[in-house]
Write a structure and sequence with these properties.
About 35% of the residues lie in helices and about 20% in strands. It contains eight helices and 15 strands. The protein has helices at about 10-20, 70-90, 130-145, 160-170, 185-200, 215-230, 250-255, 265-275; strands at about 1-5, 25-30, 40-45, 60-65, 100-105, 115, 150, 155, 175, 180, 185, 205-210, 215, 235, 245-250.
């Protein structure tokens, strides 16, 4: 059986390698398929344009798009138009996959003033781009009510070292006020995609993908400073949290039997600092 990954960037590629290791034939759609590893059959595709035929034996479709700019127009082209085009292509070719999984973002939630957020929390995006992602979710569920949406929190991992780099460069600032952060290691995000697509017989329509420990940004910066042998960054005023001040819950995902390789930022960042894994181009 075939797994189609529409939007095969770093996360999609890592998921694709895991699908391939599980015995699936994996087809990756992206603009630069020559960058894909040999385990994934690449096809040059712009999801906002005309799409090629989909193999008749396609069992799983993963939509893992990414906008090329942080603008509402770029997000609409990637998330809304791209998702609609994939669904149109499935109908055109008469392909009915057993599972469609859409990789979304916890950016669809607003600020919760430090409170807990889960799948039952109403989505109230605080940004235009978050609103576009929510629109894409709604479009998908209107056309395929059985589709699975996985809302991922901030992804870090190999090559995703913004926070590490800021501590190393001495430019990090410890927030003077409470600033909760939520994250998930790239490998756990990829593993969750495969898990929900292949190992859960009757999945819910929505899951939040986040690790076991929402944590103050100050604590993470202190941990990284200690690991790097650097001075603790100074305290000061920072811009508002990119992820909103909230504690994301992964209870529903855990209830499916999913297990984290990197349950907290400690294990995950230590692996990154040790050079484990690579970022897929």
């Amino acid at each position: 059986m075939t797994v189609l990954i529409a939007g095969c960037g770093d996360l999609g590629t890592e998921a694709g390698l895991r699908f391939a290791a599980a015995g699936f034939s994996v087809l990756g759609w992206r603009r630069s398929p020559e960058k894909l590893p040999k385990q994934i059959t690449g096809s040059a595709v712009d999801l906002a344009g005309d799409l090629p035929r989909i193999p008749a034996d396609t069992d799983v479709v993963v939509i893992a798009v990414a906008a090329d700019q942080r603008t509402e127009e770029a997000y609409r082209a990637a998330y809304v138009t791209g998702t609609a085009n994939v669904l149109d292509a499935l109908e055109r070719d008469g392909v009915e996959p057993r599972r469609i999984l859409f990789v979304s973002s916890t950016a669809v939630y607003g600020d919760a003033d430090g409170g807990e957020v889960d799948e039952e929390t109403p989505a109230r995006p605080a940004s235009a781009t978050g609103a576009v992602i929510l629109e894409a979710e709604q479009l998908l569920h209107a056309r395929r009510p059985d589709a699975v949406v996985l809302r991922l929190s901030g992804i870090y991992g190999p090559g995703r070292t913004r926070l590490i780099d800021s501590v190393s460069a001495g430019t990090a600032v410890v927030p003077a006020r409470t600033q909760l952060t939520n994250r998930i290691h790239r490998d756990d995000a990829a593993a969750a995609i495969v898990h929900l697509a292949t190992r859960v017989s009757h999945p819910a329509p929505l899951y939040v993908g986040v690790d076991m420990e929402p944590v103050e940004l100050a604590e993470v910066l202190g941990f990284l400073a200690a690991e790097l042998g650097r001075e603790l960054p100074p305290a000061g005023e920072t811009s508002s949290s990119r992820g909103g001040n909230r504690r994301l819950s992964n209870r529903r995902l855990l209830g499916t039997g999913f297990e984290f390789a990197y349950p907290t930022y400690r294990e995950g960042y230590r692996a990154v600092l040790a050079g484990a894994g690579v970022r897929h181009p």
